[in-house]
Write the structure tokens for this entry.
Amino acid sequence: PMTNTAPPTGTIDTPALQDVLAWLGAEPDNDPLRHLPALHTHVVAVTAMDIPAVQYLKILDLFRMRTEALAGEIKPLLLDASLPIPRHLRTVALALMEVHGTLANGYLTAIRHAAPEKLRGLNLTPAHLCAQGLAHLVQEYEIAQLISLPASADFWRCAQALYGLIRTGLPTDGLTAPEVVEAERSLKVILALATAQPEGFSPRETCFLADYLRQQASALEIGREDRLPAEDEYWLDETRGLPPVAASRLMPPVSRPPIHFSCRPLGALARRHLAELGSGDRPENLGIPGTAVLADYRSVLARAEVRWSNPPKRRINRRHKGSRVQVCTHLGQLWQQLHGSGPEGVEPLASEWMIRNESANGYAIMHVAGELGGIVSGSAIGLRSAPDAPWNICIVRWARSELADHIELGLELVAPTAEAVRIARSGPDAQQPIPALRLPALPSLNRAESLLIARGNFRPGPFTLLVDSASRLQVSDCLAGQLTMHTACIEIFEFVRSPAP
């Protein structure tokens, strides 16, 4: 939470402060999961102490180094997390987020209350402190996305407050100090990540995008504050503490132009990088993460580029509903039931959800009851309106989890029904038959008969389609067509059946 507690030059709670300094002077615990609770306790304690500004800043800097090292050990634990996040992992992530947020607010407090001559004595300007505070907010925001947690109103207010203080006390000679560039870059990372709609990415995809933006977010353009945003820009609501709002959806009040920005230059840069990668250039030559050499991460950049280059327009019509549905998040179990190879009389593990709203393309649903697991953006799930209704096949397009036991999903409907099949290949790619779901042709979407398979199994060329049940086995020679969808979890491709000999 934001705090206005000042670090004045009054008395010091010496015993409590000495306890903190002793902890900072000791060797860190080798176990990050034991180290984090102590770090959290001491960071929170310091913000309540009456400490002179210079000493306060030095302590914040010691905490910063500890926190950066700890984050480097904890973030990898979240890369393969799926919803619902295990409680112990969520607790760790929330504690690390609070440490980053508390330190960011600590720097904000120091800027507001430290005398300029004290900062000059440390060879610091407000921009230096803004850069440190915003760097902590970048980390806090990234961790929040790894556990599908929306950023709080206090987060956005703190980010805007720090941005507003970056140029405090600096000369207006037209020169931009390095610390100003660094501070603004951190805010741009947050803004670019937010407008890329990170709830639609898996944790590993989010980390890649954050790394890309740490190197390239400077291309985002923050507009002058003496005008309202253009329709293709975004703006920040300082009063309500909301994430970026697309001006094409809602313009701000004319009385006070807000912080506004354009992602289009960043989108153009991402397009150029994708073209250069497609031509064989190495990521390191372009100044972007080395993992961009992988097709999966180029796909992430391509999806982000679309969102940066094309801000969302007016909202599509959605029908608000309150009906219950069953959802199966375990695609393997769903395949077994559709195939008839699961335990007799045993239904796939299904949970109860409520449809919050519905559009022509899919649903927004909220978990109500029942066990579930393995949900990440890009995964495929089954949804049905009743136990005797067919399973719709949907792709998770976004996921949010504000509380440990509260999950909301945005779903794209890809097929009203599905058939469990297997595909086999001969030659160099020969392997055991792969489970797949056959999706019917949808002429209205200009989509031919298709197959949904686990990520990484698509191969162009011929294959054999096996449709088997207890009574028969149907074998068809087929040819894989174009890949129409691929996510972090699945691939969907069209195919044609070879004419019978």
